[in-house]
Amino acid sequence: xxxxxxxxxxxxxxxxxxxxxxxxxxxxxxxxxxxxxxxxxxxxxxxxxxxxxxxxxxxxxxxxxxxxxxxxxxxxxxxxxxxxxxxxxxxxxxxxxxxxxxxxxxxxxxxxxxxxxxxxxxxxxxxxxxxxxxxxxxxxxxxxxxxxxxxxxxxxxxxxxxxxxxxxxxxxxxxxxxxxxxxxxxxxxxxxxxxxxxxxxxxxxxxxxxxxxxxxxxxxxxxxxxxxxxxxxxxxxxxxxxxxxxxxxxxxxxxxxxxxxxxxxxxxxxxxxxxxxxxxxxxxxxxxxxxxxxxxxxxxxxxxxxxxxxxxxxxxxxxxxxxxxxxxxxxxxxxxxxxxxxxxxxxxxxxxxxxxxxxxxxxxxxxxxxxxxxxxxxxxxxxxxxxxxxxxxxxxxxxxxxxxxxxxxxxxxxxxxxxxxxxxxxxxxxxxxxxxxxxxxxxxxxxxxxxxxxxxxxxxxxxxxxxxxxxxxxxxxxxxxxxxxxxxxxxxxxxxxxxxxxxxxxxxxxxxxxxxxxxxxxxxxxxxxxxxxxxxxxxxxxxxxxxxxxxxxxxxxxxxxxxxxxxxxxxxxxxxxxxxxxxxxxxxxxxxxxxxxxxxxxxxxxxxxxxxxxxxxxxxxxxxxxxxxxxxxxxxxxxxxxxxxxxxxxxxxxxxxxx
Amino acid sequence: xxxxxxxxxxxxxxxxxxxxxxxxxxxxxxxxxxxxxxxxxxxxxxxxxxxxxxxxxxxxxxxxxxxxxxxxxxxxxxxxxxxxxxxxxxxxxxxxxxxxxxxxxxxxxxxxxxxxxxxxxxxxxxxxxxxxxxxxxxxxxxxxxxxxxxxxxxxxxxxxxxxxxxxxxxxxxxxxxxxxxxxxxxxxxxxxxxxxxxxxxxxxxxxxxxxxxxxxxxxxxxxxxxxxxxxxxxxxxxxxxxxxxxxxxxxxxxxxxxxxxxxxxxxxxxxxxxxxxxxxxxxxxxxxxxxxxxxxxxxxxxxxxxxxxxxxxxxxxxxxxxxxxxxxxxxxxxxxxxxxxxxxxxxxxxxxxxxxxxxxxxxxxxxxxxxxxxxxxxxxxxxxxxxxxxxxxxxxxxxxxxxxxxxxxxxxxxxxxxxxxxxxxxxxxxxxxxxxxxxxxxxxxxxxxxxxxxxxxxxxxxxxxxxxxxxxxxxxxxxxxxxxxxxxxxxxxxxxxxxxxxxxxx
Lengths: 659, 506
Known about the structure:
The structure holds two protein chains of two kinds.
Chain A: H1 2-29, H2 36-53, H3 58-85, H4 90-112, E1 131-133, E2 136-138, H5 140-162, H6 164-174, H7 176-181, H8 186-212, H9 216-232, H10 238-258, H11 264-289, H12 301-310, H13 326-345, H14 350-375, H15 383-401, H16 405-426, H17 432-449, H18 454-457, E3 463-464, H19 474-497, H20 499-509, H21 511-517, H22 521-547, E4 549-550, H23 557-570, H24 575-595, H25 603-614, H26 622-637
Antiparallel strand pairs in A: 1-2, 3-4
Helix pairs in contact in A: 1-5, 1-8, 1-9, 1-10, 2-3, 2-4, 2-8, 2-9, 3-8, 4-23, 4-25, 5-6, 6-8, 8-9, 9-10, 9-11, 9-17, 10-11, 11-17, 13-24, 14-19, 14-22, 14-24, 15-16, 15-22, 16-22, 19-20, 20-21, 23-24, 23-25
Chain B: E1 15-19, H1 26-34, E2 45-46, E3 49-50, H2 56-61, E4 64-66, H3 79-91, H4 95-101, H5 111-124, H6 139-152, E5 157-161, H7 169-186, E6 189-194, H8 197-203, E7 206-211, E8 214-219, H9 221-226, H10 228-235, E9 270-279, E10 282-292, E11 297-301, H11 308-315, E12 323-328, E13 331-332, H12 338-343, E14 346-349, H13 361-368, H14 375-388, H15 390-394, H16 405-417, E15 423-427, H17 435-450, E16 454-458, H18 462-468, E17 471-476, E18 479-485, H19 491-498, H20 500-503
Parallel strand pairs in B: 1-6, 1-7, 4-5, 5-6, 11-16, 11-17, 14-15, 15-16
Antiparallel strand pairs in B: 2-3, 7-8, 9-10, 9-12, 12-13, 17-18
């Protein structure tokens, strides 16, 4: 028993270090850092490179990684990205950090070399023997971990409470504007916070590498667990996050004593413990106050009073899409027309035609982001799980009930729509960020509990799902996928232009005004959640059709984050954006594989990541942005085509439409 | 507690006004009426029905509509779509979800709906912008859109929250006319919350006055004008008549003129030229110019919402100036950041308890003295603060947010006085303080000035401010309408610029 507690404390300590790093950047800069796992990976990878690759001693490599490289990384990332996302919407913050998390690991691999690392060294010497504490073995790695969490907690508390730097940090958490009125630059405080947070990420990464593995997936698991602690601490309490982390670690290891070892049940229960923690704490909070808001709007009354003057209005979706005027409607059809001829262009080459077919399927799945996030304004990170769920369900219907494949897909999608409606109903009272975190952990939970069932996984090879006979060839299949895409595009257009769409946009723009107008938020959000899940499930099934097999591991939650990043980069409010996102997501890697040396094979991932980061500068995405530029060009060439009506008031000169 | 034991009745088809100084609880009361805020006790009756427990949606269904102080428009909808959606929530509510399955976008529009919406657009003069997206509309237009959206739900009761704030006088005039016409034509009961007392008095036959969450008067405009309590709330009648403004009491010098008191010609401490301040589309200050000589005090006066605080925030760098320039002792600081401006010697004590609420008293002072160089200088400054305000020394370990309002203002003032600034901007330091505390605020400011600190004050106690300051600037709707020495300011001028209700003398 004691042995399990000691091991659990070590695990909890690593969670605690990670969640502390997440909380301090959230409270002082308002950014919940989804790139935390990747930052941990980069630092840990650097440590491994020094320690194993260049034979530095553990101490030297550790000091170099944690005290020099990690802070430098934090400062660089602040300068390049984090300082731009400060006053952005939650969606933009999220997508920018997701983009960073996608781009960082391949960048690190480019520098340090791609390598499968089987055993990562910890901070202990490999030759040492475990100590014994009351009869229970304690490894040096565990002791070092305890030491570090103590150091982080004690030093952190002392620095925050007693030093001037700590005072500045506490002050800027309390009120940014008051801090700057006191002569302290909040920007400089933020740089320091990011440097420290990156150090904590690196420390957690190095410590967790021996057990979780030095892989992005291992780091993502660490981050997911830390998110659970952060949610339980209501995103703001440092002490709470540390305490919950420790408890989570201990529970994880103690439970193992009572579970049958090496059973699939145990393998499913252990990773779901963080989700259990999220669920319990959210239920407690909901029961107590009826709602859980983000409190992302930090600061005191002064900060709130001056916010409208300093905040730019570029919240995604706020800048209107001018689909009402004729020339731009034609323009917005242009990309779709291009997409429609793409399969014909690649008709001659089976390889490229195959990629195009896959791209069309991605496009369908990506439309679900257009529905849920673009139209509904909800930050759902579990769309890929609906896609996977749809595909797995369809495969079951076909193999067990021998239904025709298209009918099976529709049935699977209906099942997913029901799940989506339930999720929508459950998250109705949560703030944006909580919705994102809850759907993320829902995804991870389904991934570990459901997708691993042998009925679906079938020993890792998945269940066969054959295309319908009339669309067996890639060309026909591409057009079948395109047809489905167009049907959903029509549905979305109907949604956008009907009363439902008006109500959705109203709710997204101002919830208070919508409620006092009598528009029910609940109905609309539940419908959109269901519709989004339906679209995702059909898209996922088509991806399975394309591959010929429904394989659970093609639908991992963290891959879903990449999907979101790609869609937002190209325009989450634009149907054409989803189509282009799908095609480029499938074709770009192909281009790199074919024409570029394998060493550069990871460049597409980096490009997608950097694209998402660029969203911090222009939240509307590339398609809308380019469309605007095209329109401007058109207006210059032919001014009579499109002249927006101008208000005829004395103040019309004052306002300036964002271009 | 923001609002306590308030009783207001709005008769059918009548305009009723609700006025009160900043922070009186007006907007909170609106939140309670529209269902966004739950009251602790009491009840709300709508057309005779108890709706205290009803959701905002339900109240909207029963005929309640409102606007917001900061317009809550739907940026992604066109002006016409605002009205269409509002109309349908009343007439065809189920379309919000049924349209999804019945291809609602292809359904021909209902002629009755089009007629009703067109009628509203015409009567509000929104025609030219009807098909424009509401994002980026000028503030006056946004308010009309909100009004139109509220009217499109065919309400029986309409709540208007600060409909004229941020509008210039022409726009206010137009809005007033529109409102009058609509109330008359449609027979809607209207409750208006306004800081512009004169506007309410012109519009409403009956009005209520709220102060610190409590109703202090109600009646016809004439009755309100004569009510002594109302005048006290607005004008801040000298609470202890005859008390000196505290200049006589000598204290330890606060410094400020430490860099050598030579007689050479210096530029004025502060020169503001053609300064414009904007919150998005709303113009807060336009074209303000004035200057303050070194060691002088300037009182910035004007009714609520005139742009005084915005002007102060722009000087200290919190809000970037939209146009114009600010110079401190001859140095241009227009584009500087707030912390650079603080280091240059400007300390801004913002309105409404300018303290770090979640830091202790001593930490607040440590933050304030962080600009000083040297440990000893910082320690001396904190000692000075405690010497000036011994009450704070007793509470040094308490969270500033747990202090009483008066103590928080003390702390704010201590922040300003302890560090020997060149220019001190005091925004409504005496707001909501007991008379005796108001005395000590003025005393503190007097000490600062004696030691050479230049003072820019925004004050609700007009007469005390005038007695204290050397110069006076009067703002009205963001514009400087009068400036000069305080000696030349007389009652007539005051009444003219600040309005009858604020300045009437018994």
